[in-house]
Design brief:
- The structure is a single chain.
- By secondary structure, the chain is of the alpha+beta class.
- It has helices at residues 33-53, 64-68, 101-113, 118-132, and strands at residues 2-8, 16-19, 27-30, 77-82.
- The chain folds into two domains: 1-91, 2-Layer Sandwich (Double Stranded RNA Binding Domain), CATH 3.30.160.250; 92-133.
- It has four helices and four strands.
- A four-stranded antiparallel sheet has the order 3-2-1-4, with helices on one face.
- The chain is elongated, with a radius of gyration of 17 Å.
Length: 133
């Protein structure tokens, strides 16, 4: 799942701060921007694991443009990180669906071209469709 992160500029005396606006209370830091991205991924994973253990749902994300205009993030840099958190929100279930052959072929081609599995692609597509509804 993709998450927007806001990166507060670092200085010689302070690290780069990272906030995940769609996950209230999820934050991290890093001595370099690269380390900030890596630590953000770890923070998101840990935060989502705690949410699932507490029986709480993953908050619906807002568009990046929603967060970028907030004054508390003025002069911050933005990034997107992809963190596979879906596994925390329920065990996978095998299902049997019917899909037209041509569409299935296109799904498989797209998934392969993007380094995904058919199931992974279809899950992401479903999540995006539900969020937009």
């Amino acid at each position: 799942m993709k998450f927007a992160i806001a990166i507060e500029p670092g200085t010689r005396k302070s690290a780069f701060g990272v906030v995940v606006p769609d996950l209230p209370g999820c934050f991290s830091a890093g001595d370099t921007v690269e380390e900030a991205f890596d630590n953000a991924r770890e923070a998101i994973e840990a935060h989502c694991e705690v949410l699932s253990e507490d029986g709480k749902a993953l908050p619906d994300p807002k568009p990046l443009s929603h967060w970028q205009v907030k004054t508390e993030y003025k002069n911050w840099t933005w990034g997107i990180v992809d963190v596979p958190v879906e596994r925390f929100f329920g065990p996978a279930e095998k299902i049997n669906i019917t899909v037209p052959a041509l569409l299935l072929k296109r799904i498989d081609q797209h998934a392969k071209a993007h380094g995904e599995t058919r199931s992974g692609f279809m899950t992401k597509a479903a999540i995006e469709a539900i969020r937009r509804a």
